[in-house]
Amino acid sequence: DQQVKQNSPSLSVQEGRISILNCDYTNSMFDYFLWYKKYPAEGPTFLISISSIKDKNEDGRFTVFLNKSAKHLSLHIVPSQPGDSAVYFCAARSGGGADGLTFGKGTHLIIQP
Amino acid sequence: DTGVSQNPRHKITKRGQNVTFRCDPISEHNRLYWYRQTLGQGPEFLTYFQNEAQLEKSRLLSDRFSAERPKGSFSTLEIQRTEQGDSAMYLCASSLGTSAFFGQGTRLTVV
After folding, report:
1. Which one, of B100, B54, B104, lies nearest residue B77 by Cα?
2. Are B99 and A105 inside 8 Å of each other by CB?
């Protein structure tokens, strides 16, 4: 039972354009959501997070949007840069912040020059 | 302190052998997590410590797996009688608040 779903295994975007990565979840108890970026042979790197009491959080080129009624979140990267090419994981947790994270399967973002 | 450190980075072992991995978290972080990642999947939660207390264990953590964090600092994850299905990347993460920071992982190959 996949509680966090990233339905696009890969996404190709031209350099300078906007990248939009999507994530859906099924567990209503999730109250905190995170995005991680992962290069091959490295551990995931934390990018940005959002609490369930908010609907938007922005950090530089990265913005995360949360639609609780649709149980959907998205990560926007603008403008996209070649160094953004990586696998992006959506993750969620419940329990006020102490519980382990539940991850999606990831989306491989490829930035085309 | 530059981040979460894991050793070794790679481990190849024969089926049936025992292996132990070490994780050194970010020094002020009181929470430490172990995850496992296989090809094409996201990381899967295994277990969690708050200081030295192991507070949560996933059903993925069979009785061949044991984790410790004896002094609330570094942690070890031991796998006994390894099986080929144990081949994966084992990731450690630590946190103080709501965001967890990961190490580079230990890649285990069981042959």
Report:
1. B54
2. no
Q: Which residues of B fall below an 8 Å CB-CB distance to A?
A: 4, 6, 31, 33, 35, 40-48, 50, 55-56, 58, 91, 93, 97-105, 107
C-alpha dist (Å) from residue A13 to A8, A16, A58, B71: 13, 9, 20, 47
According to DSSP, residue A101 is labeled: P
Which residues in chain A have their CB less than 8 angstroms from residue B46's CB? Answer: 100
Quick: pLDDT tens for A26-70: 999 999 999 999 998 889 999 999 999 999 999 999 999 999 999
Q: What is the mean pLDDT of chain A?
A: 94
Q: Which stretches does DSSP call E strand in B1-111?
A: 5-7, 10-13, 19-24, 31-37, 44-50, 53-57, 65-68, 75-79, 88-95, 101-102, 106-110
Query: What angle is formed at CA B90 by the lines to CA B92 and CA A72, rounded to 5 degrees?
Result: 75
